[in-house]
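Figure 3 (text version): structure tokens given as input.
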């Protein structure tokens, strides 16, 4: 009696089978990240042009801060609307709009002759910049498996930080040699290039992985979408992690780092620029480490975030309040830790991602992303005002950093257990659901 055919054993479904990951995913994601890369160049270009801007527009420290404050105000205010747009319209349309807006803003900034027109240009740039990062995060969740989420997000932040490197090394030297208009006008070509790349190559998702059609946009539905994301403790914890960790690096690179090193620490402009590149280098290295650690050990998220906050506070105090000029070694150590603030802020998205369903990912990311930029705006404003009131005393002005760090650390400690319990409940529910799904 002959044996019947041997029953086939279903093999586990792999990433290749599912269409997630692979070379095409890397190509599409790289196009999206290139938009974010250029947006960072434009966003941080004022950080190396602050001294030039005060001379060009005849403004004081408070007015100089207003450039970055308005830019970040627009950016932060756009985060939830952009999250909703990404969830409903898809990544490609939002990135096209963003690239067009920030390129137009950079062009207008290059040609501005008055403070008012330059201010409007930075607002337009901030509006376009606001549309990039959330779109890139959404692109990563659509093209890569969920288990790669922390690493993909950290890589996006890492590549964006190289835009800071371009600002520090290239734009600062170009300003010295070519002047304001030529430098900023030439940089707009990068915006045109990425806009063309998005039009030609970007796709919202792999074939067969189209998301469910979003419901028709109504005011009540939008409110419920925002409220649904906000109700999750992981979303709120993510916002406060982002709030507390990102802003020291952001306001230092965005505007006040170079003036502080030159005016308060007596460094040359060239030496200060080279020291700022240490922040970028540290960000790139630490980002790779944090991404790998968190992908393997989710319990490390809160300790890493809080540890970064504490270390930043200690070195900030050492550098700012050192009698006389701080040693170069102390300033270098501060820059290394400030570089770690960027990857630490990405941990906020690692709290919100598992807390929300796919339909709310863009909205939740927008809420989280508001955190660091809100704190950065508050710091930029307080530092500018305190510098004017204290006669350019950086020790007084930079002390405002500790207030926001204390507020954020308290909120993280308050929310972390609640978010952990909710995340465990979701994990158990998903496992139960998987067991009961028919084969």
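Below: residues designed for each position.
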């Amino acid at each position: 009696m002959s044996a019947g055919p041997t029953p086939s054993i279903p093999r586990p479904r792999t990433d290749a089978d599912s269409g997630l990951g692979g070379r095409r995913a890397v190509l599409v994601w790289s196009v999206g990240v290139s938009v974010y890369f250029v947006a960072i160049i434009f966003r941080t270009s004022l950080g190396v042009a602050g001294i030039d801007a005060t001379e060009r527009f005849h403004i004081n420290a408070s007015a100089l801060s207003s450039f970055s404050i308005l830019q970040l105000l627009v950016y932060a205010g756009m985060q939830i609307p952009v999250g909703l747009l990404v969830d409903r319209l898809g990544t490609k349309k939002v990135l096209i709009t963003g690239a067009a807006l920030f390129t137009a803003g950079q062009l207008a900034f290059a040609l501005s002759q008055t403070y008012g027109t330059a201010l409007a240009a930075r607002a337009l740039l901030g509006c376009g910049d606001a549309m990039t990062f959330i779109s890139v995060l959404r692109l990563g969740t659509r093209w890569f498996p969920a288990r790669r989420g922390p690493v993909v997000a950290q890589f996006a932040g890492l590549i964006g930080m190289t835009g800071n490197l371009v600002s520090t090394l290239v734009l600062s030297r170009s300003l010295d040699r070519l002047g304001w208009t030529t430098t900023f006008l030439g940089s707009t070509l990068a915006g045109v290039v990425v806009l063309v790349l998005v039009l030609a190559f970007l796709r919202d998702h792999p074939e067969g992985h189209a998301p469910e059609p979003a419901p028709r946009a109504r005011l009540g539905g939008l409110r419920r979408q925002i409220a649904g994301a906000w109700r999750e403790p992981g979303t709120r914890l993510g916002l406060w992690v982002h709030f507390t960790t990102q802003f020291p690096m952001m306001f230092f690179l965005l505007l006040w780092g170079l003036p502080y090193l030159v005016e308060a620490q007596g460094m040359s402009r060239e030496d200060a620029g080279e020291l700022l590149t240490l922040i970028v280098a540290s960000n790139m290295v630490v980002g790779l480490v944090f991404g790998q650690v968190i992908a393997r050990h989710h319990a490390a998220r809160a300790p890493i975030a809080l540890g970064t906050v504490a270390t930043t506070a200690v070195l900030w105090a050492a550098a700012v309040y050192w009698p006389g000029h701080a040693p170069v070694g102390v300033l270098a150590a501060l820059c290394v830790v400030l570089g770690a603030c960027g990857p630490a802020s990405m941990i906020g998205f690692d709290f919100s991602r598992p807390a929300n369903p796919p339909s709310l990912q863009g909205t939740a990311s927008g809420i989280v992303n508001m955190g660091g930029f809100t704190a950065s705006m508050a710091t930029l404003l307080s530092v500018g005002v305190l510098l004017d009131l204290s006669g350019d005393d950086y020790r007084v002005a930079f002390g405002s950093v500790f207030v926001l760090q204390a507020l954020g650390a308290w909120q993280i400690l308050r929310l972390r257990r609640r978010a952990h319990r909710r995340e465990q409940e979701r994990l158990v529910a998903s496992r139960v659901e998987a067991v009961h799904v028919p084969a």
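The domain at 20-206+220-430 is CATH 1.20.1250.20 (Growth Hormone; Chain: A;).
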